[in-house]
Amino acid sequence: MQSNYLSLKTLLAACLFLFTTATATAQLQGDIKFGFQASPTFSWMSSDNNLINSDGTNLGLKLGIIGEYYFTDQYSFHTGLGFHFNAGGTLRYDDEFTRVDIWREALDEVLPVGGVRDFDGGNSYKYSLQYLEVPVGLTLRTREFGYIRYFVRPSLHLGVLTQSRGEISGYTGLGEDERFNISTEVNSVNLGWSIGGGIEYSISTSTAIVAGISYQSGFADITTDKDTEITRPGRDAREDDSRGKTNALVITLGVMF
Q: Between the CA of residue 181 and those of 88, 89, 103, 107, 162, what are the distances in Å?
């Protein structure tokens, strides 16, 4: 948790510097606009192990501010600062596993002393994650058709984990829908990319409503695989070194001033 706090402080300082620099630059040589977004998201997790499969979608929300620096009338750099609430998804370990021992440190905090921490295959493990995100990218626009312009927006995303909760389906040792802290089982930094598009509808000379859709995916493995083991029939237990990453479909909704 201390490392998360230090990363969060560093990221906030970097964002403050970025916005201050962008504003000063824009006042000298260009045009800058600010806005905010409230964008619903549908996120899920995937794994590079074909016996660990996506098994559910999280309905989430992105809230934050956006800044755009126009270097021409149709092209701009953009960045921002916001939260992605309830990112993540659910991973299901195939029935072929005879023993699944993950989230050991987190389960030590919620299960009674001597309680079972090994699970059979067929269980699903839900990740509910919250990130502080900074996107950086380009916005490429068409010329204006009446009050509408179309855009394409490729971006990179840096996310710092601010909250993480886990849930195991169908296990009697935990209460129904009981969520618990899994911060030790999730990496604190996530780097991803996205590509999206949509429309801008001008409602005045300085204000536009933005709507669109984008796909976002992570580069990084968000699971730490710390002290985890999985066992299959006829094989010795081995460390679960699979890579799990988050993906999301984002319904972009915002206003630019």
A: 14, 15, 10, 9, 11
Tokens at residue 38, please?
């409230």
Rounded Cα distance, 184 and 226, in Å: 8
Task: Report which DSSP code applies to 206.
Answer: S
**Torsion angle, alpha carbons of 128, 106, 92, 161, to 10:** 30
Query: Is 50 exceeded by the pLDDT of residue 159?
Result: yes
What's the predicted TM-score (pTM) here? 0.85
Residue pLDDT, tens place only, 103-129 = 888 888 887 665 556 688 888 999 999
Structural domains in the chain, sorted by start: 2-256 (2.40.160.20)
Q: CB neighbours of 187 closer than 8 A, spacing ≥ 6?
A: 161, 220, 221, 222, 223, 224
What one-character DSSP code corresponds to residue 172? Answer: T
Which sign does the torsion angle of CA 232, 234, 239, 245 carry?
Answer: negative
Q: How far is CA 231 from CA 51, 76, 118, 127, 240, in A?
A: 12, 51, 10, 22, 9
22-38 tens-digit pLDDT: 445 444 445 889 999 99
